[in-house]
Amino acid sequence: MVNKLCEYMTQCPCCPCWGSEKKDAVPAQRIHIQHTCLDQAHGHGVRLDSTSSTAESVRSYRERVDSENSRTDSVSSASGISVDSRRHVTPIIDMKPIEFWTANKESVQPRSKRGRHPSESEISVENFQRELYETDPSEDEPPSLTDEEKLAQFQLGQLHFGLKYDVSSKVLVVKMIEARDLPPPYCLDETKQDMAHSNPYCKISLLPDHKASKQTTVQRKTQEPVWNECFDFDIDYSEAQERTLEILLKDFDKYSRHRLIGRVLLPLSSVNLVKGGHMWKPLSPGDKECQDLGELLLSINYLPSAGRLTVDVIKAKGLLQTDIVGGSDPFVRVTLVQSEKPTKTKKTSCKRNTIDPVFNESVSFNLTQQQLVNASVVVSVWDYNYKSKDDFVGRVVIGYHASGPQESQHWDRMLQSQRSPVAQWHSLKSRADCDQVSLASIAVP
User: Which residue range or ranges hold the C2 domain (predicted)?
Assistant: First the structure.
């Protein structure tokens, strides 16, 4: 029966690949073929699946079928089952496994054991948690010193002051009482100009606001000054709890621009302000390079139709004190500079015995729009002296040769909004600082 089946398959017209004349021409590559042939002798179909057909495979196939028949006949005879009861014979075909991934060129990576990787939306800037990467600045700083350790280490003396908050009027009262054990001036003066006693005074601020500062009188030639002066700060109680009291103790010297002796920093949240009280605090070293010369409020305006530039000197505050007795007598000089040459200078009236003067005065200059482009205005604050030369306090330069970014911004705002006055506060600078960045400042003595 098997022999007849093989002869029928070799002579089947629908399968030319099994013909004898095609045995030598069959290619070596695999060809997927599926045939279904009907066995007429037994009345049932036999399906053969193969991937290649050669002469050697046919011979091996016959040998395997014969061996399989012999084993089946022996098993059937032993179990009483006839050979005719076999309904289907499945040939054993030697074939390689089909590679299903050859069509898809994407590389398949094994799943990571560490977990799921975050998506692009999860690592965006909006989802960045800054607190996870911030470091505590207190970890890099040395541990805070006690008052006794500060006094022994720095040896700058102590400061006696009091605090009291008036709930009804919403005013914080700071009373400067006295200081003691201040260091001699030659310890802080490298030039050794003043070998005698100090001329101390205090400057009080509520940080981070440096503008609303207060200043005591200057006590002449003493290392243990006594003030007994009170200063009021209008502030809400909740806001006062977030401020830090800063007291700068300075030594008055018009030639060295007032040397800093020491300072006291006290967070107001650590004090019962409503109950109030007095305390002694040791002085610590401060920033000696910072020179606070005061601030000046200016307003500038240009009228194109009239060709007139107007500078309004409104007021100043916290000016550097140049007279040891009676405060200062400040006035303001305004100089117009064109092509690095001063053309005209005007000044305000003098305000007597104050470091917080209010002027409310205007000075005007005639300028065309072509001249305005390269013009500069040098505003200098001076202290008037009766019997000697006036003392220079500070200056700012606004215009083409400005003395800083804030001054340039003020001038640009004026050019963009002509016919409307533009006001802005300016921090006064020394003449040396202005000369380094402004040619107009060099032209004005």
Answer: 155-281, 292-426
Task: Classify the C-alpha dihedral 285-291-292-293 as positive or negative.
Answer: positive
Sheet architecture: strand order including 358-366: 358-366, 308-317, 295-303, 422-427
Please report the domains of the chain, with CATH numbers, ordered by start residue: 2-80 (no CATH), 147-282 (2.60.40.150), 295-443 (2.60.40.150)
Neighbours of 418 (CB within 10 A): 14
Query: Does residue 410 sit in helix, strand or coil?
Result: helix
Please name the residue that has the structure tokens 């200016």. Answer: 298
Pairwise pLDDT comparison (324 vs 329), residue with the higher score:
329
In this structure, which amino acid lies at residue 327? G
The rounded distance, in Å, linking the Cα atoms of 30 and 366 is 101
Backbone φ and ψ of 75, nearest 5°: -70, -40
Please report, for residues 157, 185, 213, 248, 287, the alpha-carbon distance to residue 151 in angstroms, rounded to integers and kept in the order given.
7, 18, 26, 16, 18
Lowest mean pLDDT among 100-104, 246-250, 325-329, 413-417: 100-104
What pTM value is reported for the model?
0.55
- Residues 111-135, mean pLDDT to the nearest whole number: 50
Which amino acid is it at 228? N
- Max mean pLDDT range (138-142, 197-201, 227-231, 382-386): 227-231
CA distances to 166, 175, 236, 239, 274 from 170, rounded to whole Å, are 6, 16, 6, 11, 11
With residue 47 as reference, give the H or E element that holds it.
strand 44-50
Cβ atoms of residues 216 and 200 within 8 Å: no
- Which residue reads 């050669």 in tokens? 54
- With bands split at pLDDT 50, 70 and 90, how would you rate the model's confidence at 335? very high
Predicted confidence at residue 90, as pLDDT, reads: 56
* Distance between CA atoms of residues 103 and 374, nearest Å: 74
| CA-closest candidate to residue 320, choices 240, 193, 201 | 201
Of 29 and 328, the structure prediction assigns the larger pLDDT to 328
